[in-house]
Amino acid sequence: MKKWLTNNWILKLVALGLAVITWLYVNNELLK
Amino acid sequence: MNFVLWTKIIPPLEILILWFVIYQILVFFEGTRSFQVLKGLTILIIAFIVSQLAGFDTLNWLLTKFFGISIIAFIILFQQEIRLGLARLGQQHLFNIQLEESEIMAIVEEITTAVYKMQKSKIGCLIAIEKEAKLKTYIESGVPIDGKISAELIQSIFMSYSPLHDGGVILRRDRVIAASCLFPLSDNPNFSRIIGTRHRAALGLTEQTDAVVVMVSEETGEISVASEGRFIPIVNRERLVNILKGLLIGQTKQNK
After folding, report:
1. What is the pLDDT of residue B249?
2. Same-domain status, B128 and B249
3. Domain range holding B181?
4. CATH of the domain at B199
5. From the CB of residue B33, how many other CB atoms can be counted at a distance below 10 Å?
6. Residue B147 sits in the same domain as residue B226
7. Do B24 and B116 fall into the same domain?
8. Which residue is closest to B39 within chain A, CA to CA?
9. Side by side, which strands form the sheet with B125-129?
10. What is the mean pLDDT of residues B56-64?
11. Which residues of A touch B19 (CB under 8 A)?
12. What is the longest distance spanned by two Cα atoms in chain B?
């Protein structure tokens, strides 16, 4: 699991950031 | 299930699914020319969100209009990738299917046989094995082959009278994907003056990606393996097999 996470971690982090931003934006949490 | 509990689970679950989908999209585009376009689009989306948050009405209006037409632009820009992506979904290749250890060993055996036969005939070669990072940009620079790996196929590509012998061959899983591919040249000052173009190309590719490159020098018949921007000296056949086995099987286990 640790190895999977550290492998290509930059792309995984960017994807996580984008996922969180998208979710917050769509659910109007950002504009509250 | 308790409804309140379910509503609490939905947001993290949704983010997790989003993460997976976005990561797959990024991996799909990584290493291609379209990745730069995707980066540009991401910056624009972030700018759009920031402008909404900050209440920049004019900017917001402009970006809203831009996004209206950008759907058509997106389809035109990523036409090839969308087609490829849908084809992959149809073939159920989205989830990376790993090769068995025995299959990898068979591939290593074919590569080793080809390399030693070429060394004997003093034929130069440059073979890149794709790992996690996609080599699409370099595949696009060559001639598509998509044939099953065999020592004979690799040898015939590098024969001096073959129109494909210039440049490198790219292997993905058990296929020879493309030949005559151009690799980026290393500008490492420690190597660039003492090594030839083929070695610099091998070094350059392994500096920029996680690919493994096997090469035979045309002048000396020397065999080398390059990985992570370094050369690994090869003294005999067993060593080549062990090095390739370590670099390729290690990767497979890491992915599991």
Report:
1. 79
2. yes
3. 101-255
4. 3.40.1700.10
5. 10
6. yes
7. no
8. A14
9. B143-148, B175-181, B168-172, B125-129, B212-216, B223-227, B230-233
10. 84
11. 12, 15-16, 19
12. 73
Question: What is the ipTM for the molecules in this complex?
Answer: 0.87
Question: Which of B61, B91, B121 marks a domain boundary?
Answer: B91
Per the CB < 8 A criterion, the answer to whether B136 and B177 are in contact is no
| Interchain CB distance below 8 Å, A19 and B27 | no
Residue B143 pairs in a beta bridge with: B179
Per-residue pLDDT of B149-186, as tens digits, reads 999 999 999 998 889 988 899 999 889 999 999 998 88
Per domain, the residue ranges of chain A are 1-32
B156 and B87 together in one domain: no
Taking the C-alpha atoms of residue B127 and residue B181, their distance in angstroms, rounded to an integer, is: 10
Residue of A nearest to B30 (CA): A11
Residues composing chain B: 256
* Same domain (yes/no): B84, B141: no
pLDDT in tens, B184-222: 888 776 665 667 888 889 988 888 778 899 999 888 888
Query: 3-state DSSP: chain B helix, strand, coil percent, rounded to 5?
Result: 55, 15, 30
Amino acid, single-letter form, for residue B251: Q
* Pick from A31, A25, A30, A21: nearest CA to B19: A21
Q: Is B44 left (phi over 0), alpha (psi -120 to 50) or beta?
A: alpha
Question: Is the pTM above the cut of 0.80?
Answer: no
